[in-house]
Amino acid sequence: MTERRLVLQQWFEQGIPFNRFLGIRLHALERGRCVLRLPWRDELIGDATRPAVHGGVISTLIDTAGGGACFSALDRVEDRLSTVDLRVDFLRPGAAADLWCQGEVVRMGNRVGVARMTLWSGHMPTAGEPDQPVATGQAVYNIVRRSEE
Q: From CA 104, how far away is CA 84, in angstroms rounded?
């Protein structure tokens, strides 16, 4: 996974222009699991009266973490994914702090993958800490298998 992780990290952080614009960082990647971190900056505010993170930023991280988890479960780097369905449940306002999002594969089929995601503000909870996510999500990804040439 080390070489593949480096390829995926480069692709996630630099190869996708929107991820690069936001500053998304790949924190952890293993087969079927992806953890992303988005370092805080004031441009991520959606509600200046609180201040709270913009819902589009939250949705992007949730979709990207789920896609990363499913992509890490593919056997070939050439294969691709596209989002078919995305559900985001906004649970509480996201504080002005680094955002962390974990995606985990629920099921990888031949044509679709399903992942569940959780997003936190500040840090990911450790064992014994209360788990108070900002948002949760679930997504379905279409798997596009590229033929070997």
A: 17
The three-state (H, E, C) secondary structure of 25-56, written as one string: EEEEEECCEEEEEECCCHHHEEECCCCEECHH
3-state class (DSSP) for residue 21: helix
pLDDT tens, position by position, 23-82: 999 999 999 999 999 999 999 999 888 889 999 999 999 999 999 999 999 988 788 999
Helix axes 2-10, 55-72, angle to 10 degrees: 150
CB 64 within 8 A of CB 36: yes
> pTM for this structure?
0.91
Query: Could you report the per-residue pLDDT of 93-111, keeping only the tens digit for each?
Result: 999 999 999 999 999 999 9
